[in-house]
């Protein structure tokens, strides 16, 4: 079914289609994360980032060919575009650095706090008014992050800090995406992928390792899977309201727990579950309040970028 045919369906069917596509996109993102964790156990973050970015162009190439090169060159606010690319690249690099030593569910918990960071930072960078209810939810959400972070001298790790820094980088890049909403999705993802390609190349210069054909294929597939997942989430947001889809983004955490247990034997502890529950409830409340404040208009959702 084409996108135009989908739009001809009744409104209820469109929402159902959007939810199903959102669930599929989140599954693919979680699969991408599990593949990335497996690969960075044997290869450097830079090497995985570089080859994965090459693989992403398998998905991007037809889209670039369809719209032409001109929209990629004539972009609004070049300096903000460059900053967004830098932060999005940092998000991906720190994510891979974190999952080298941390379970998938742990890292994903920090990334699930992105709506909380965005709500707080939007007040600073976008001048958006945030009422006391959302500030309270933001504070509670941060408490959830602290609980999941386990900030004791014996448990706080560099990998945990990588995950937090990566998730904050992701949140700021999303805010910049709002400022650059006039730029096409293809242009945003293309330049983001180019940034990751360059960063991966630089990081891999001193630690490039020979790989088997299977591993090379897996690294290329990593980019194709993440690129496809990003496009699925984008399509879902065109079929159903963001406020309807927002709760389903937390299935990423569920899949991360499942993949972590099945493929890596990582069983989350009670403290992580408590922190995750607090973060999810705070994030859902923030989405709800945004919808109320906007009078029912679509609030900003927070799909994962191409990690």
From TrEMBL:
Q: What positions does the domain EamA occupy? A: 17-149, 160-286
TM segments?
Answer: 12-32, 38-61, 82-102, 108-126, 135-152, 158-176, 188-208, 214-233, 245-265, 271-288
Q: Which Gene3D superfamilies match?
A: 1.10.3730.20
Q: Can you name a GO cellular component term?
A: membrane
Keywords annotated in UniProt? Membrane, Transmembrane, Transmembrane helix
Top-rank taxon, per record: Bacteria
Q: What's the protein here called?
A: S-adenosylmethionine uptake transporter
Which organism encodes this protein? Pseudaminobacter salicylatoxidans
């Amino acid at each position: 079914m084409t996108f135009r045919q989908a739009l001809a369906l009744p409104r209820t069917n469109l929402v159902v289609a959007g939810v199903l596509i959102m669930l599929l996109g989140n599954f693919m993102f979680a699969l991408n994360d599990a593949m990335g964790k497996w690969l960075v156990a044997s290869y450097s973050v830079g090497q995985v980032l570089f080859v994965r970015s090459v693989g992403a162009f398998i998905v991007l190439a037809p889209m670039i060919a369809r719209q032409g090169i001109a929209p990629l060159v004539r972009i609004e606010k070049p300096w903000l575009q460059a900053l967004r690319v830098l932060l999005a690249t940092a998000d991906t690099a720190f994510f891979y650095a974190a999952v080298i030593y941390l379970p998938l569910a742990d890292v994903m918990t920090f990334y699930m706090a992105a709506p909380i960071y965005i709500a707080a930072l939007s007040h600073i960078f976008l001048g958006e008014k945030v009422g006391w209810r959302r500030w309270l939810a933001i504070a509670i959400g941060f408490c959830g992050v602290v609980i999941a972070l386990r900030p004791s001298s014996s448990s706080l790790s560099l990998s945990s800090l990588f995950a937090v820094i990566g998730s904050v980088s992701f949140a700021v890049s999303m805010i910049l995406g709002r400022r650059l909403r006039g730029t096409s999705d293809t242009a945003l993802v293309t330049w983001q992928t180019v940034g990751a390609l360059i960063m991966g190349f630089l990081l891999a210069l001193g630690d490039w390792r020979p790989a088997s054909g299977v591993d090379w294929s897996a690294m290329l597939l990593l980019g194709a899977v993440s690129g496809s997942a990003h496009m699925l989430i984008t399509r879902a947001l065109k079929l159903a309201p963001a406020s309807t889809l927002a709760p389903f983004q937390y299935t990423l955490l569920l899949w991360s727990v499942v993949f972590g247990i099945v493929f890596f034997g990582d069983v989350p502890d009670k403290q992580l579950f408590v922190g995750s529950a607090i973060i999810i409830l705070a994030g859902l409340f923030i989405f709800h309040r945004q919808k109320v404040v906007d009078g029912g208009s679509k609030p900003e959702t927070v799909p994962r970028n191409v990690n």
